Amino acid sequence: MQFYQPIKPWVFALGLMAAAPVSCQASEPEKQVVSKDEPVTIRINPTKTYQTIRHFGASDAWSCQFAGNWPAAKKNGIADLLFSRDTLSDGHLKGIGLSLWRFNAGGGTAEQGDGSGIKDEWRRAESFLGSDGGYDWNKQAGQIWFLNAAKERGVKEFLLFPNSPPVQFTVNGKGYATAGQPNLAADQFGKFGDYLADVVDGIRKKTGITFQYISPVNEPQWDWSDGGQEGTPFFNNQIAAMTRSLSASLLKKNLSTKINVAEAGQIEYLYSEHNRQGRASQISNFFDKNSTDYIGNLSNVLPAISGHSYFTTSPYQTAVEKRKQLASRLATVPGLEYWQSEYCILGDNDGEIKGEGRDLSINSGLYIAKVIHNDLVNANASAWHWWIAISPYDYKDGLVYIDKNKTDGNFQSSKMLWALGNFSRFVRPGAVRVEAVSSLASDGLLVSSYQNTNKELVTVIVNSDNKSQEIKIDLGSGKQGTAAKAYETSAETDLAPARIQTKDGTFSVRARSIVTIISQL
């Protein structure tokens, strides 16, 4: 994407109930009204479960091609912020522990230079495929560095995605479309599939990293004719045909990589036509057995559909309803998951927050935390991915911001990084979301809870109100919980260990903060 102009530990006793898995599709339960003089009660029921969380991720487009060639100390510092799960001697966390990394397979616009038609050099991308039809695995070196850095810091899952097919295959010889028309002819689908399989195989041989997932199209509903970046539209029948070709290409090379479709530009396209004839209702098109575009029978197509949360996040209650519609449609296809696969703050969001202007404050962090909560709780998202992990732009698009310098520069973290970390660092792959109900009927206090595979209970509280909240957690009668830890992101803290004063079984969550509580079940 995108369309922007460039663009310490504490202890409390918990009563626990024995956990037993229950299959549920429901979204966030209704909240009750609480008296102003009473603490807010959060009732957590580990026996009522929802979706399994696969991973939290971000992409290397486009800055990693340069930042990956910066001095070692600086690029390692950036990688630590994104991937590390280490704890420093003072109890602070080194990074947010992303569990998936997205690698952009470039279309070759960098090699075209100014002739690419993409004015911003930072949005052009190299390609492993040469003009002679051969491959140069020394290309995309900066991105390969971050790919290896993620693996070294414990990331185990990787996803490959192109924004455009290689320019050698496109209709107009460019990395973006003409007049909003698909930029890949049907007779090139097989070549494109073989190319993507070659890239998966070539990177595996070079780095030892096998991509678990490949996402062959990006936001196919958009026009992609402005030359702002690599991109092309497609119709659903074309996506289905490309997916069949890619499936065959992967199988031919004996690759275990699974195909993830279809990176919808907005979530409405997943469950409705939403003003794009022939490019809508993707759940039905791709996963209804009676559809001519059905691809759910392909052995290497992932039983998950992906979409982007852009332009659907404000106002909050409208955003909730859209996600409930998505969850309801998903529930009609047994076993089908939803992956929120790309987001940063775009547009004006009904005046709530604007995408323009870099913002390192807690304002953006709180907004992002509410979006993540909404996607996980009301859309039942199994995965949540950020857009560009590293940004040189004056825009709300970066987890880490850098100087727009190709060889060296400064970097700094954003509150958006640490807000995502309140989820990604602690809610690990395989975690199951469990019921968490707040007694406060307010969008200013959002609560979700997850049980990791090691029986940790992780509860994330987003308090966007301008006042602190007294909280009491209720897990029913039974065993007592072990010692718990809390980590806070606020105007003053970056996912820092929190001392929360307790009194009569309650604790305080300060105004405009995100707090993650970890307790052993």
CATH class label of the largest domain: Alpha Beta
CATH homologous superfamily caption of the largest domain: Glycosidases
Instruction: Give the CATH topology of the largest domain.
Output: TIM Barrel
Major sheet: order of its strands? 20-19-23-16-15-14-2-17-22-21
Q: Main β-sheet, in a few words? A: 10 strands, mixed
Short summary of the structure?
This protein has two domains: 15-51 and 437-520, Golgi alpha-mannosidase II (Immunoglobulin-like, Sandwich), CATH 2.60.40; 55-433, Glycosidases (TIM Barrel). It contains eleven helices and 23 strands.
Features of this protein?
eight-stranded parallel barrel; 11 helices; single chain; 23 strands; disordered N terminus; 521 residues; TIM Barrel; alpha/beta; 2 domains; Immunoglobulin-like
